[in-house]
């Protein structure tokens, strides 16, 4: 199992004292290079579709040559940042606090990012990148984890996540066994908890990332049952898209990116957010504590907030911009992306965050280290 390395999850969410150097007060000359860890589809230079290119103009404008290392899970991102050698990472909320408290990322001087003032007020002080009033990340994009389905199997959108969690016949009369997928990452336990919060309200699940021992045991039991149904635990978007095209996979959790890409190929897929709601991600660009190219990094963080980039990226990935004004900027494909991708549904999404033992909704919760251990065991069939 590629991405769930012990190094990735060994960062303890310790006390919040940060001894890192203060952020810079001014920027010097760009260093000529920038190394970014990013989700697939997040940093495009027009190689897949020439209309979607927000790297070439940046390189020309700043002289900073951009190198991208894609990562498929948050744990992989944390592992890569622990190894070092990168300047920036587009971290989701289940990685960001591990990076902050592990002192792998540095506090940012938002005065060196003029476009900061245009960031969505719902995200400016979000707890996944703001600690003790200090900002450790610049919002990049956000969106839900959707239920992707084959429209030849489902003539109407499924209304519940039960189609991937519970044994049943799908609308084509065939069992779902071997035709569903689950996400290859411990944070997926929260998806099971979100489903159970509505199916079994007596469990009292208030937050899918804050589970007591009983709630957690129920989520694991559901996931162990799901194991028998799964065709694959997905983390590679290209592999998942091929599975929908060639392997008979009918329904799975997914990112809007895969949905958009498959639709672009005229494949019979669509997506929905079922009645139980969805988990999701709000990603922040964070700078490594030992970034070798900090000026280029600040230049990129400023660039990342321009409305043209935010518009094109939101349409391309199927996400939502972190700059509200970008909703009014035409994207290359002409889509009404903010309306389509749920910009107004922000409050319905349960954003990824790292589970910790001391939780807000109840006394004691199961920490992420345990999530990792148990989910690896489930995927391995134990």
Automatic annotation (TrEMBL):
<dbReference type="Pfam" id="PF13416">
    <property type="entry name" value="SBP_bac_8"/>
</dbReference>
<protein>
    <submittedName>
        <fullName>ABC transporter substrate-binding protein</fullName>
    </submittedName>
</protein>
<keyword id="KW-0574">Periplasm</keyword>
<dbReference type="InterPro" id="IPR006059">
    <property type="entry name" value="SBP"/>
</dbReference>
<keyword id="KW-0732">Signal</keyword>
<dbReference type="InterPro" id="IPR001188">
    <property type="entry name" value="Sperm_putr-bd"/>
</dbReference>
<keyword id="KW-0813">Transport</keyword>
<feature type="signal peptide">
    <location>
        <begin position="1"/>
        <end position="21"/>
    </location>
</feature>
């Amino acid at each position: 199992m590629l991405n769930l390395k012990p190094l990735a999850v060994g960062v303890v969410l310790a006390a919040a004292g940060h001894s890192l150097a203060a952020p810079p007060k001014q920027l010097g000359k760009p260093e000529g290079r920038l190394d970014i860890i990013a989700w697939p589809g997040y940093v495009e230079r027009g190689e897949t579709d020439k209309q979607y290119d927000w790297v070439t103009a940046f390189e020309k404008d700043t002289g900073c040559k951009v190198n991208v290392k894609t990562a498929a899970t948050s744990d992989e991102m944390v592992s890569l940042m622990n190894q070092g050698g990168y300047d920036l990472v587009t971290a989701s909320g289940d990685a960001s606090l591990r990076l902050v408290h592990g002192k792998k990322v540095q506090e940012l001087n938002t005065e060196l990012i003029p476009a900061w003032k245009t960031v969505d007020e719902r995200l400016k002080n979000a707890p996944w990148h703001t600690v003790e009033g200090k900002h450790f990340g610049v919002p990049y994009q956000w969106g839900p984890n959707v239920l992707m389905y084959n429209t030849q199997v489902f003539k109407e959108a499924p209304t519940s996540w039960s189609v991937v969690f519970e044994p049943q016949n799908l609308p084509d009369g065939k069992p779902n066994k071997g035709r569903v997928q689950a996400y290859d990452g411990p944070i997926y336990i929260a998806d099971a908890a979100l489903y159970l919060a509505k199916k079994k309200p007596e469990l009292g699940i208030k937050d899918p990332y804050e589970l007591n021992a009983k709630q957690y045991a129920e989520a694991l039991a559901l996931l162990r049952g799901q194991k028998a149904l799964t065709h694959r635990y997905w983390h590679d978007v290209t592999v998942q898209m091929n599975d929908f095209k060639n392997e008979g996979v009918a329904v799975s959790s997914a990112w809007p990116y895969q949905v958009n890409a498959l639709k672009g190929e005229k494949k019979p897929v669509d997506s929905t957010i079922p009645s139980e709601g969805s988990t999701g991600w709000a990603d922040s660009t964070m700078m490594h504590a030992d970034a070798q190219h900090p000026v280029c990094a600040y230049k990129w963080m400023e660039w990342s907030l321009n409305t043209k980039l935010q518009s094109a990226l939101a349409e391309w990935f199927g996400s939502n911009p972190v700059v509200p004004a970008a909703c009014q900027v035409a994207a290359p494909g002409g889509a009404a992306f903010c309306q389509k991708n749920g910009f107004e549904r922000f409050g319905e999404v349960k954003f990824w965050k790292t589970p910790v033992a001391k939780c807000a909704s109840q006394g004691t919760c199961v920490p992420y280290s345990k999530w990792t251990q148990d989910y690896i065991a489930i995927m391995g069939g134990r």
